[in-house]
Amino acid sequence: QVQLVESGGGLVQPGGSLRLSCKYSSGIFNIGPMNWYRQAPGKQRELIATITPSSTTNVADSVKDRFTIFSDNTKNTLYLRMISLKPEDTAVYYCNSRSWNGAQDYWGQGTQVTVSS
Fold this sequence. Notes:
The protein has strands spanning about 5, 10, 20-25, 35-40, 45-50, 55-60, 65-70, 75-80, 90-100, 105, 110-115. By secondary structure, the chain is mostly beta strands.
């Protein structure tokens, strides 16, 4: 059974930093890209960062200078490092794994990030 388990969210002040983690089932990293999405209240889920099995990364322009995606395959863990957080970064953050043909699509339960003073 494929599992994706996020952690690391919480309440942080504007300008602060967080590192989100996504523990994934062994072998899942190679089926296709792994992604971080977020969904703010009343908004659609938004793709913010992707990493491929060859470790090519892409980050949305809206967070490019502040967010970094990386993976430690020895620990089966995907990360999202976030710095200079803003109130508009407040959202539930989700880890996703999707096969190249889209036939397999797995999601974590999400972790809440709240940026507020």
